[in-house]
C-alpha cells in the first residue's frame, strides 16, 4: 500500500538482503534503496534529496534502472540500486579493427554483434553444441576444440567474410567461442547433460530438481522397491561326485533380485538367479517371498568365521507378528519382465498391491534399492580376489579365473556370504532417515506404536489365495473314438489323474490348473466354477526329478534349437544335465548351477540314460520287437454326476 495515496502497489521486483551486500557498497545501496522506496510512495524529489542526499537527476536515472525488466519479465528493483550492477547488456559500437601483433583484449561485444548480423549462426551452432545433428556419439568425450572448427564453417556458410571477425583472427577466437558454448549449455541443463555425459548423466538430472514428488511420505511396510542386479566375479562350479572343474568352467555372473522397504530400508527378500537374464517367474517368486516371509537362516555355514549377528534376519523372521502385512504399492522399473501378466495378476488380483512402474529412464526414484546393489557389489563381491570389478579399470584383479580356483572361491560360498550379509544388514545401524537406527529397529518402532492400525491379512485368507502358485486355463483333450483318455498339456508335457481319466465329459472343456513354480511334476486342477477336481501328475518321462517351470521351458527351447535330442525312454532332466556337463560355456555353467540349486539330487553321480543325448537311433530296438502289454489301467471309479454342474 502506497504510504501517501493509500493505493495498492504491486511490488513485482527483485529484493536484496542488505546484509549480503559487500561492505564497500552497502552504504550507497541503502541510500539508493530508501530513495527508490520514497519515490514509489510519492515523495517529492526535494524531500528525497534532503533525507538521502541523492540528486533529482540521479533519482530519475535510478528509477529507470529500478523499473527495467530482466529476461523473465521481472523488474530488477532493489538489485538495480547496487553500485556497479548491470541492468543492460553491453553493446559494442566501435568498429572491429585488426589486432596489433602484441595486442590483447579489445574485442568486447564482438560476438553479440556477429550473432545480431547473422542470426542463423546461433541456431545452427546450437545443434552442434547439443550434438543434435549427430545420430550417434552422445556420451563420448566432449571436446570444445572440435566445436571451434564447426563454428568457423558455419560462419563461412552464412556469408561471413574472411576479413571479418572471427575468420580474420590469426589465432582464432577460441576463448570467446568457448564462452558461447558454456552459455548455450547453461540454457538447457538436461540437453547439456545428455550431450556432455551421455544417457547416464541424463538419468541423473531427474534427481534433485527441487520438485516435491506427488507421494513423498509413506509408512513402514507401505511401499517395496524391487529390482535386479547382476554380480560379476569368477566362481568355481562344484558338482558332487564329479571332477573338480577347471578355470574354463567357472561361473562369471549371476543375478541378485531384492525387495526392499522404502521407509525402513529393510530387505524383505532376496533371490539368486543363475541365468543370463531375469525372467518374470523370478520376479514372481521374489514378491511371494517378500509377502509370505518364509526366509530362515542357514543351519550350517561352510565359510570360516561367518555368522549371523544377534537379531539379524529378514523382517518377518524377526517379527512374525507382522507376517502377511498388507503392502500398498511396489515400485518397479520398466524392465520387460515386470510387465508380465503373472506378475500383474499376483499383485493386483491376489495381493491387492498397486504397481508403479514410474517414468522411463529414472532409476533415481528407487534410490534405496539402487544404493543397496552398489553396497553389495563394493563391500562383498568386489573385495574378493576373483572379482572382475565394475569395469576393466575399476577393481578388476589380474587373473580372476586362476584366483577363483587357487583360493577355492565357489559359488555356494559366495551365496552364503551374501545371505549372511543381507541378514546382518537389516540389523546394522544406518544413517539418513533412519537416524542411526537399524532397519529392524525402525520396524520394531512401527510395531510398538499402538496409535497406528496394522493392516495384517488373516492367515486363513492368505492360505485360501494360494499365493505362491501360477494359474492357467487349459482345455482337456482326448477322444473316446480313438481310445485317448482325457488329459491336459502344459509346456509339451501331458498331465492326467485317475479321476480325470474317467471323465470323458470334460473333453473339449476348459479347466483351471494351479501350478507350483518350483515343482512342475504335479498341478492342482479345478472346475471353472472353482470346485476342486484332482491333483494331476505329469507323464513318466518328467516325473522322476523335481524341476521348475523355468527348467521345463529351457529344455523345450534347447530341443527347438536342436542342441540335443531325447530318445524313447530317456528322462529329459538327465539328458539336459548331461548336455550342460558336456558342452562347457559360461551360460551353460549358469544353467547347470541353477538346475542343481533346484534339485540337489542331480549333483550326485547320475546314471547316464540308456541312449545318451546326441547318439543316433541305430541301437534303439524297434517297436515291433518289443512286447506290447495291454493291461487295463487301475483307474479309480467316480460318478461323473458328482463333478458336473447342476
From TrEMBL:
<protein>
    <recommendedName>
        <fullName>Integrase catalytic domain-containing protein</fullName>
    </recommendedName>
</protein>
<feature type="region of interest" description="Disordered">
    <location>
        <begin position="600"/>
        <end position="646"/>
    </location>
</feature>
<feature type="compositionally biased region" description="Polar residues">
    <location>
        <begin position="636"/>
        <end position="646"/>
    </location>
</feature>
<dbReference type="GO" id="GO:0003676">
    <property type="term" value="F:nucleic acid binding"/>
</dbReference>
<feature type="compositionally biased region" description="Basic and acidic residues">
    <location>
        <begin position="623"/>
        <end position="634"/>
    </location>
</feature>
<dbReference type="InterPro" id="IPR036397">
    <property type="entry name" value="RNaseH_sf"/>
</dbReference>
Amino acid at each position: 500500500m502506497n504510504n501517501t495515496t493509500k493505493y495498492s502497489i504491486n511490488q513485482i521486483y527483485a529484493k536484496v538482503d542488505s546484509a549480503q551486500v559487500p561492505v564497500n557498497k552497502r552504504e550507497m545501496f541503502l541510500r539508493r534503496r530508501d530513495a527508490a522506496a520514497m519515490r514509489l510512495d510519492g515523495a517529492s524529489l526535494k524531500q528525497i534529496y534532503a533525507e538521502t542526499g541523492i540528486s533529482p537527476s540521479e533519482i530519475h536515472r535510478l528509477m529507470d534502472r529500478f523499473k527495467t525488466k530482466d529476461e523473465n519479465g521481472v523488474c530488477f528493483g532493489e538489485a538495480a540500486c547496487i553500485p556497479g550492477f548491470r541492468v543492460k547488456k553491453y553493446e559494442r559500437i566501435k568498429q572491429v579493427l585488426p589486432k596489433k601483433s602484441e595486442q590483447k583484449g579489445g574485442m568486447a561485444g564482438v560476438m553479440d554483434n556477429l550473432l545480431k548480423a547473422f542470426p542463423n549462426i546461433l541456431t545452427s551452432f546450437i545443434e552442434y553444441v547439443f550434438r543434435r545433428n549427430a545420430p550417434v556419439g552422445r556420451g563420448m568425450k566432449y571436446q570444445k576444440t572440435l566445436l571451434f572448427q564447426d563454428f568457423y564453417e558455419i560462419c563461412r556458410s552464412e556469408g561471413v567474410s574472411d576479413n571479418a571477425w572471427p575468420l580474420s583472427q590469426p589465432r582464432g577466437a577460441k576463448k570467446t567461442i568457448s564462452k558461447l558454448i558454456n552459455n548455450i549449455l547453461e540454457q538447457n541443463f538436461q540437453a547439456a547433460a545428455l550431450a556432455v555425459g551421455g544417457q547416464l548423466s541424463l538419468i541423473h538430472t531427474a534427481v534433485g530438481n527441487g520438485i516435491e514428488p506427488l507421494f513423498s511420505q509413506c509408512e513402514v511396510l507401505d511401499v517395496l522397491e524391487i529390482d535386479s542386479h547382476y554380480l560379476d566375479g569368477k566362481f568355481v562350479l562344484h558338482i558332487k561326485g564329479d571332477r573338480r572343474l577347471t578355470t574354463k568352467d567357472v561361473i562369471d555372473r549371476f543375478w541378485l533380485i531384492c525387495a526392499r522397504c522404502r521407509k525402513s530400508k529393510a530387505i524383505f527378500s532376496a533371490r539368486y538367479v543363475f541365468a543370463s537374464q531375469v525372467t518374470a517367474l523370478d520376479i514372481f517368486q521374489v514378491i511371494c517371498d517378500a509377502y509370505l516371509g518364509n526366509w530362515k537362516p542357514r543351519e550350517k555355514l561352510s565359510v570360516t568365521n561367518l555368522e549371523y549377528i544377534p537379531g539379524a534376519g529378514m523382517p518377518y523372521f524377526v517379527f512374525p507378528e507382522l507376517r502377511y502385512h498388507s503392502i500398498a504399492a511396489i515400485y518397479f522399473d520398466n524392465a520387460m519382465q515386470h510387465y508380465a501378466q503373472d506378475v500383474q495378476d499376483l499383485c493386483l488380483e491376489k495381493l491387492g498391491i498397486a504397481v508403479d512402474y514410474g517414468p522411463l529412464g529414472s532409476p533415481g526414484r528407487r534410490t534405496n534399492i539402487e544404493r543397496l546393489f552398489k553396497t553389495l557389489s563394493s563391500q562383498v563381491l568386489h573385495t574378493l580376489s576373483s572379482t572382475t570389478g565394475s569395469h576393466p579399470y575399476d577393481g578388476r584383479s589380474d587373473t580372476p579365473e586362476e584366483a577363483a580356483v587357487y583360493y577355492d572361491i565357489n559359488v555356494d560360498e559366495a551365496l552364503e556370504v551374501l545371505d549372511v550379509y543381507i541378514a546382518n544388514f537389516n540389523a546394522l545401524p544406518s544413517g539418513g532417515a533412519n537416524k542411526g537406527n537399524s532397519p529392524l529397529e525402525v520396524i520394531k518402532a512401527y510395531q510398538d506404536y499402538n496409535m497406528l492400525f496394522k493392516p495384517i491379512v488373516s492367515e486363513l485368507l492368505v492360505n485360501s489365495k494360494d499365493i505362491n502358485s501360477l494359474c492357467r486355463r487349459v482345455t482337456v483333450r482326448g477322444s473316446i473314438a480313438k481310445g485317448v483318455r482325457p488329459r491336459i498339456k502344459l509346456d509339451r508335457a501331458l498331465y492326467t489323474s485317475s479321476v480325470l481319466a474317467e471323465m470323458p465329459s470334460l473333453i473339449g472343456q476348459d479347466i483351471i490348473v494351479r501350478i507350483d513354480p518350483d515343482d512342475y511334476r504335479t498341478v492342482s486342477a479345478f472346475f471353472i466354477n472353482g470346485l476342486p477336481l484332482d491333483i494331476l501328475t505329469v507323464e513318466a518321462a518328467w516325473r522322476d526329478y523335481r524341476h521348475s517351470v523355468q527348467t521345463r521351458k529351457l529344455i523345450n527351447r534347447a530341443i527347438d534349437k536342436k542342441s540335443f535330442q531325447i530318445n524313447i525312454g530317456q528322462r529329459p532332466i538327465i539328458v539336459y544335465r548331461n548336455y550342460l556337463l558336456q558342452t562347457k560355456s559360461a551360460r551353460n555353467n549358469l544353467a547347470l548351477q541353477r538346475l542343481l540349486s533346484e534339485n540337489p539330487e542331480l549333483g550326485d553321480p547320475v546314471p547316464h540314460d540308456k541312449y545318451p543325448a546326441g547318439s543316433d537311433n541305430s541301437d534303439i530296438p524297434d517297436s515291433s520287437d518289443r512286447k506290447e502289454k495291454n493291461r487295463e489301467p487301475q483307474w479309480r471309479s467316480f460318478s461323473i454326476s458328482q463333478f458336473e454342474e447342476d
